[in-house]
Amino acid sequence: MQKLHYVLGSAIIFFLAFFYVDLDEAGAYGWGYKKNKDHERPDVGKYHQILKDNGSYYVDDSGDKTVYLTFDNGYEQGHTEEILDVLKNEKVPATFFVTGHYVSSAPDLIKRMVDEGHTIGNHSYHHPDFTILTKEVMKRELETLEESVAKASKQDDIKYVRPPKGMFNQQTLQWANELGYIHVFWSLAIIDWDTNNQKGWQYAYDQVMEQIHPGAIILLHAVSEDNAKALEKIIKDLKKEGYTFKSLDDLVIKDKIPEPIYGY
Description:
This protein is an alpha/beta fold. The chain is built from ten helices and eleven strands.
């Protein structure tokens, strides 16, 4: 049942990801962008300013050839160990946005992620649409997940949140800030979540390489065998193209702390 719930949520995310879905009347937005193959930051319309006003991120807009790898983990399909092996061998950091079901069913993997220098992000405990929750319920969703991660690993604090189903509004962004969280969306994603319709590693590789752009925050689902098999080649080839892989902490620090002015 947990898997079905997460798959349906992922389907909604990827419908929204490539189309603008503005649900103003319902007081909610569905994250999305205009996909392009020009290796430029995708157009997210008015969402750009909304996120900027609320200290949220979907891209590193500095122009640097930097990439930020993020994974959404709603349930375990047997591919995360291979993904972690690749990240370790290539010395690449990643952020794993996990749900309560994932933490309770795969605590050893949570521990390994943290032990190997990766960051755990908050994808909520039960994967609800934040825009239909009260602030108190949203707080409980986030704090319960954070407590679960702290029990399974050495990470006792979570900074980053990715809203389930990509749903958000001004209020949920503000509430997250008040609770000490930073929203992190994405500027590059592929249709990879359906475990019954995997298309081969070449598909995943091609989709990422076609959309890659400086400052990309990449969203991949760890349930995808295609992603696990393509990851090493993606990383190696992006390094050859001059890209470097950084953590979300690096992005926030770079954004919040101005570069020193030399010569004065």
